[in-house]
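Dear colleague,

Following up on Tuesday's group meeting, I ran the structure prediction for the two-component complex that the binding team flagged. I've pasted the input sequences exactly as they went in, so you can double-check that nothing got truncated or mislabelled along the way. The structure tokens for the whole assembly follow below. Feel free to forward this to whoever is handling the docking comparison.

Inputs:
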Amino acid sequence: MEPVWNGWGSPDFKKPLPKQADSVLTERLGTSLALPEIELEALAASVSPSRLNDSELLTTEAKTRIKYSRGQSLPDWLALKYGELERVTDAVAFPKDELQLQSLLELAYQLDAVLIPYGGGTSVVGHINPGNDPRPTITVSMEKMNQLLSIDPLSQLARFQAGVRGPDLEKQLNEQGYTLGHFPQSFEWSTLGGWIASRSSGQQSLKYGRIEQLFAGGTLLTPGGKLVVDSYPASSAGPDWRELILGSEGRLGIISEAEVRVQPLPEKEQFYASFFPSWQAGLAAVRQMAQQDIHASMFRLSHPTETLTQLQLALEPKKLKRLQQLFGLLGLGDQPAMLTWGVTGNKKHCRQQKRAIRKQIGQHGGRLALKRLGDHWQHNRFGAPYLRQSLWEKGYLVDTFETAANWNRIEELQQEMERSLAKACPQTPMMCYTHLSHVYAQGCSLYTTYLYPNKGSYEENLERWQAFKKAASQAVIDGGGTISHQHGVGEDHRPYFEQEKSKLQQSGLTATLAHYDPDKRMNPGKLINGCAPKETS
Amino acid sequence: MEPVWNGWGSPDFKKPLPKQADSVLTERLGTSLALPEIELEALAASVSPSRLNDSELLTTEAKTRIKYSRGQSLPDWLALKYGELERVTDAVAFPKDELQLQSLLELAYQLDAVLIPYGGGTSVVGHINPGNDPRPTITVSMEKMNQLLSIDPLSQLARFQAGVRGPDLEKQLNEQGYTLGHFPQSFEWSTLGGWIASRSSGQQSLKYGRIEQLFAGGTLLTPGGKLVVDSYPASSAGPDWRELILGSEGRLGIISEAEVRVQPLPEKEQFYASFFPSWQAGLAAVRQMAQQDIHASMFRLSHPTETLTQLQLALEPKKLKRLQQLFGLLGLGDQPAMLTWGVTGNKKHCRQQKRAIRKQIGQHGGRLALKRLGDHWQHNRFGAPYLRQSLWEKGYLVDTFETAANWNRIEELQQEMERSLAKACPQTPMMCYTHLSHVYAQGCSLYTTYLYPNKGSYEENLERWQAFKKAASQAVIDGGGTISHQHGVGEDHRPYFEQEKSKLQQSGLTATLAHYDPDKRMNPGKLINGCAPKETS
């Protein structure tokens, strides 16, 4: 199935806003003006012609070029729906195998074109947008390379072509009794190669690990040849070259195959929602659980503001009121912090862990373990992005940003992130809320969502986004967070990546990229800018 | 306390061979001739003079130079004890702080000298030996930089100067209620910086993680400046530069400070020994436990040959016989495989895990859980290297090698490793045995010990070692193992590292090293050879 060309996901699936949403939005953001959506035909007629010719490997058809030129960031949506595509890729290729991929690298050299590797096109930071390199651009969609190549049940390893999307990957594994367990929110459309290239993290990374722990080795086609990284359970033989491919964002080459660590399908999987009297109490509880021998499969702690917003959207006012009365009776106040949590494994493990988690929650004043709300989360776990379309149709713009930081910075950082948004466009009504979605012994991630109403033109809406993004990103860096926990760097985070990393780390990365791609032919302008290759090293 | 200059560890500690050992050794290897030990004074009189002058930062005293010129490999012992030091470092420095370290880098540039970073000198693969670079050599001992700098209890992070030895590190942490939990066999003498530079793995890595998981960030002084890597709980902002420092073996620069992930001291820690009727049954049991939600703190599975040898050395013949009778009664045969295992954590965790582990062991035909043998292992966990001296005194040479591989290769690889030794010097009596000491879902490590008798001259003994080492290393590579799971590459594994890693991985590493160290001034000749710096990238 082909996804919507100018928004998120399946064309057959809509997620209308709950009927309670209207009043919440109007109350907090005022009424808004409908936002436009240009037709694909009209847009195709207006884009600049390709600088390349059709060939066996390349298509230059305008509609295809448009579809593969933007990701899922808010500026991407604005550009696609207003029809303000500054740049469109010159051609799209759909290689069927490594041989064709190799031919594309040679063709790019012959044509002096640059290549943009394209997984599922779900980037929210501009990974796959044509940049300002003057050379023609070929976007390489990996969607036809989606097969399970081999499986080693004893070592629990599976080798895939890297273009495989989440559901296809899981289906091929599930048929043999296995799972990878990597479920980012973009799961339904994103690809294995994309996860690796952008250091993705799944919702249950607490159990299964981030993609860093799952990616065991593979093959990357670079302009200088094939970079093969063999797979060992562990090794002390020098720096780990997998870690260079992870997060390489297409700058080194194109990941063609990847070996991943899989597990037998779990016997049982359960999700619950519990509530804490405060954000601080919830933070202390999840921190202590992350630092102990407690094995949940996920923790997602919503700040009281997010908790209230989510409950307002999920429940009819009457039901919400009853729940709030219950909160009061349980000593949670009327603005508790919701913790969604899960256990995954065999029955005994789930039982033991569930008991241990409930005990810890109780020790921090937390109450309840509502399976119904846990199930609600599970059934909607990949659904949130569809809400953006429903909001768009009502004239509201929504975006998110995220980070990870050490525990000793989290409370202040969360406040600063939200404060920075409030200060960024003081004239614009804005609502925002935050949750924590990944925990580690050392710290956790923070994920902030913000909404603002349409104020008319493309430029006005984009400028507002730029102001919000700039303020929030700077708050992240100033507060000791990384510019991204799970979305990568791409174009949008590049200036902050350059603030975050030390000078010698950047120069080393630049030198390494230049070694593999001396002509800066691979996804130039993403991740890191500086790359005057032959001179720098 | 200063360690023995020409062997392992403390001068005040001896570990005599058990009285049963004589007959075991004579029976399997024949009698042997005593091995020599030259006096330090005599050796100091014979080494070539230093090419550098004494200064505030450098000492060129011959005895000091000798002490810091060799590690703990068998060829190192042969060279030190026979007095056959081909090369001795020209000077040794003992920087007190980062400023002095920086001065040493500048001094090396002025003198056109090369630098060898020196942690605890416990390398068994030639990491700290002066190589064949024609320039004078300065060995930089980090032993004075051994302080805990800061601790963040909330994020469970501690920052240390990198020259801190294991016991000093644990003492400084224990005083505040924390532990790093990194206990390689070399723990008592090796250093934090050395662990990082060589990708070390501790005996309880199953609980605490390898040094890769413990090292959170730090500072490395390179010839081009200070490379700072900040510490985040996780990040998707580009390739992880920590992973370049890990395993860099001094080739990038000198690690001056490191932040590590610590944990509160565990409530409880227990070790047991169980027995399986066969190696295969033991392998299946530990593999399945590593692939399930079972949380031991260590597994060490001895092959039946190692089990028998260890029991023969640990027990008087009468006691051994009684134990073997018990094995028979329990259906274990007379050559079972011993599994030493541990649990670490709070009481409840230990109780639950102990129960789960015993159940799994039983399901694979395993029997017993002898705390006495577990305690024996615990009390001797750092003692094995002292046995080398006792063997030396009786005229027997001992060495080990190790690897890690996927589960589907383990059985054959273990056989091939031992077979390769048997074939290497068919005229030399040799005994060998193997254990598995680290398990992962994907595979495990294998660790083989071999002994052979002294046959006279330095050259004859060294040649035999070379033949054994070559045969074993090639068997590892041919059998799909990594050339090292926990000892690193150094000089001795370099040819096999070059076989193990793909061409483009090697060229990329070479280019990256050249970026930070264009003059090849940092520990040249270790890890990877090729480094014609400015031209290659």
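Confidence is low (pLDDT under 50) at residues 531-537 of chain B.

Cheers,
M.
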